[in-house]
Write a structure and sequence with these properties.
Blueprint (H helix, E strand, L loop, with lengths): L3 E5 L4 H12 L3 E5 L4 E2 L15 H11 L3 E4 L15 H25 L4 E7 L22 H18 L3 E7 L2 E2 L8 H13 L6 E3 L5 E2 L2 E2 H11 L7 E4 L5 E2 H11 L8 E3 L17 H7 L7 H15 L8
Helix pairs in contact: 1-6, 2-3, 3-4, 5-7, 5-9, 7-9
């Protein structure tokens, strides 16, 4: 009999890769998001609803009784989006990022105690930390409502573990892929560089070329989430590459692959960064490597080049005829 999985937030970068991973491993995969349902052929029928509604979560969990549940739903911002300080946005962030998880955990407790739950947390729980590298024991120090919401979600996970629910948390550092949303700096770099190659743009403006980031490859991080739920006991894990690279590094690899001199096209303007800067976040992934036998499948350079190749393919371009 096929194992079943429910992905909450299946339409984004992470959810799409996770869906493919689980289907390749012969899971029957269901997905719910704010605007779309994923129902496998001959699967149980589920309806659209909101995870912020406890009754809806009860209905979904009681109907599916999935072997695994992945909570990826989140409200977040990029560094160049206008900062939201208004109460409605903050409430929405807490409701989606944390309270929805509490609803799911409570539904599992009441209706499907054998279901294993994964919660996608974030390195933003450490965004004000003074530690040079962060591990699972580093004290939390958020500086945004997003980071606060992720800590709250992890606290809910711990609370329901005490009640007997299996819930593991993955503290994800930055992870990229060709499916990354255009509002994030990595995709902005690649899309603009390819536009420059194709004569559709003249320059790329970035906020901070010297910013250091722990970047990984999104499919690898979804594998990490899956591996966590194969353990006998729930645990919290740092999911990171463990290595720092600058925005300039990402730019150089992108433009070099396109056979362009980045210095002729890239301009720095620190004024476009609207959010408060965070500390340098570098994750210690040794626990994940040790307990889950996990390791990155590609290098940083290979990841960047994969994203560039995908952008060229999407536009029907090649280096030969561009």
């Amino acid at each position: 009999m096929k194992r079943t999985a429910l992905i909450i937030g299946h339409t984004g970068q992470d959810g799409s890769y996770l869906s493919e991973l689980l289907e390749q491993r012969s899971y029957q995969v269901y997905g719910i998001s704010s605007h779309h349902l994923l129902i496998p052929e001959e699967g149980l029928k589920i309806k659209q609803g909101s995870i912020t509604d406890p009754a809806y979560c009860d209905e979904i969990i009681q109907t599916l009784k999935p072997d695994e549940i992945y909570y990826l739903a989140a409200v977040h911002q990029s560094s160049i989006e206008k900062s939201h300080d208004d109460l409605p946005f903050n409430r929405l962030t807490i409701d989606v990022n944390a309270n929805g998880l509490m609803n799911v955990l409570n539904s599992v407790l009441m209706h499907s105690k054998t279901s294993k739950v994964f919660f996608a947390s974030s390195s933003h729980v450490f965004s004000g930390s003074e530690s040079q590298s962060q591990s699972e024991t580093t004290p939390y120090k958020p500086i945004s409502i997003y980071g606060i919401s992720k800590i709250l979600g992890m606290n809910y996970a711990e609370l329901y573990r005490e009640k007997g629910v299996f819930c593991s948390c993955g503290i994800f550092y930055n992870h990229e892929s060709p499916r990354r949303d255009s509002k994030f700096v990595t995709k902005k770099i690649v899309e603009t560089a390819v536009s420059i190659l194709n004569g559709e743009a003249e320059e790329l403006v970035l906020g901070d070329l010297g910013a250091k980031i722990d970047w990984g490859y999104a499919p690898d991080y979804m594998l990490a989430a899956h591996l966590m739920l194969q353990l006998n006991e729930p645990e919290d894990f740092i999911v990171s590459s463990g290595k720092l690279h600058t925005v300039k590094d990402f730019v150089e690899i992108t433009f070099n692959y396109l056979k362009l001199d980045w210095q002729n096209y890239v301009r720095e303007n620190k004024g476009i960064i609207l959010k408060r800067s965070v500390t340098v976040l570098q994750g210690d992934n040794s626990k994940l490597k040790s307990l889950c036998n996990w390791s990155p499948s590609v290098t940083f350079k290979e990841m960047v080049e994969l994203i560039v190749m995908a952008e060229l393919k999407k536009r029907g371009l090649s280096l030969k005829n561009s």
